[in-house]
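Researcher: For the record, we're logging two predictions in this thread. I'll number them. Prediction 1 follows.
Model: Prediction 1, sequence and structure:
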Amino acid sequence: METTELTIPKEAQDLTNEVKGNVDFYKSDAFTIQTAEQYSNSAEDLKRVHAQEKKISELRLGMTRPLDATKKAIMDFFKVPEQYCADIKSAISTKRVGYQREQDRIRREEEERIRKLQEAEAKKLEQRAAKVKSEEKAEKLRQEAQQIRETAPVTTIAPIEKSEGIRTVTNYKFEITDASKVPAEYLIPDEQKIGRVVRATRGEIIIPGVKVYSETKESSTGR
């Protein structure tokens, strides 16, 4: 597979090297904030890094935006024929499933018809057994009746053969008809709603089962 060589602008390479060279220092014990002057100077450091980060993002977007536009144009074009294929597959599958269901219905009705005939035959044998005087013969008739009941109905309708290369998947879905009756173990907290309440009230509203805490972070304004 042919690959395209990526060319990174020199400005991006230089900026990357500059930022990389500062990582170890700021993550080490050599960088400390123990005085008011250090605290003030660190604000300038933070703003400088923010400006570098913004520039890196601009350089990245300058390279990726044309690619994104090209990708979108390609995706938009192929989306149409892919949807055509999806529509055709859906139409064919719908008719196939409809045929399968109809054949299953016919087979079930035929099996039920045969089952009723078997039951009627079994009852006749039991009635004969009740009338005969020989207990041995009566028992034989009752066994024959039981055997008929236990025999699976055989129909002349052949099962649908599987199509090679076609996989049939049955998905079981659901819909909630009464949320108030759903057991508690199937419910999950609405974290988005809880988050909105916590942020809006700054944690002043107590929600049972919820612990509110805060995290403080700094970021430069970019000014």
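Researcher: Logged. Prediction 2.
Model: Prediction 2, sequence and structure:
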Amino acid sequence: MGFDLYGTNPYNPNKAVKPKNLDWNEKHSQDELTKHFEKVEQYRKEVVGEYFRANVWWWRPIADYVINFTGCVDEEDEGYWHENGGHEVDEETAQQIHNQLQVLIESGHTKEFQDKYEKERLKAERHNDKVEKELDKFCKSVEKKLGKTNLAPKDFPKEDHEKWEQIYNKRIWSASYPFSVDVIKEFAEFCRFSGGFRIC
């Protein structure tokens, strides 16, 4: 799952021509696909406000950072930033987000936030590694007890499945959501030149 953001009226100073979409009902050679995606990539480099994409793991920290520190997202709109429903951000707000992110970046806030955030995330990763080892050890003990191998936890006896869930629920999910100053910079530039955007 990912989040695709589309600029409403992206700045295109050199009048770059957007490549036509391929007809995915037709069969295309590898060479055709390669050339098409190269053209798309080149267009997006020239028109940086046209498109921004992040998978769910990267997007949630971006959205949270914007919501919590720019003051540009109304409280009633916060939930839409975590949905693929096509929420629209107008041009003025997009520009304000860019401006506020620039202030946060230049002041060192974003770097300080990244350092603290990543320190906690890596700590959570190490914790999850221990949980994985505990899960592996428990699964092997259940298989040995039942005399079976390659059992999925859903096939464990009820008591063992409940124990597996108890261990599994020790995981810290924030370990999966990284944060980077560079990604915030990229998003800020997208906002600056997007002319407003939709979150899809």
